[in-house]
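# step 3/5: fold
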Amino acid sequence: MAKRKLLNGVVAGLATTFVSRYNNINGYWALGVMFSIASAKSNNVIFLDLGQDLIVPNNKKLQKLSSKYCDKLKLLLKVNKLNLSYCKNIVIKISFDVPCTKNHLLNHFTYGKPYTCIVSIIDDLGKIHKHTVVGWCAKHNPFKESRSRLR
């Protein structure tokens, strides 16, 4: 049981790297690209189920990102000496243009609209390990953004 507590660190690691500026899709900040994809589908939510390989809305760019985070998950589990069998459900849910909360105001470092990213793992014993990150994000605009060389 004590080992499963380490899943809290795994979800925190996944969440913070997922919203990081170093997380990119074709050299552009992944959150901005995802916000554009979600808005184009008239739904401001992106849902990645890493365990079931389910992506909503389905998109090639998001498939590549989901695959990258499956690999990150496996690496974090290996580093923490945890088995993948401990994880029954692994979900990343990001909601854009959400109502502004106190936490959003404390994390207002950039322009755009508020987002909430929730990473959760339900372990084999039914316990939920969850980490939430809030921030601000604008839709992807290649005319305003510079492209990273870290593709």
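# step 4/5: annotate
The chain has a mean pLDDT of 86.
# step 5/5: archive (pending)
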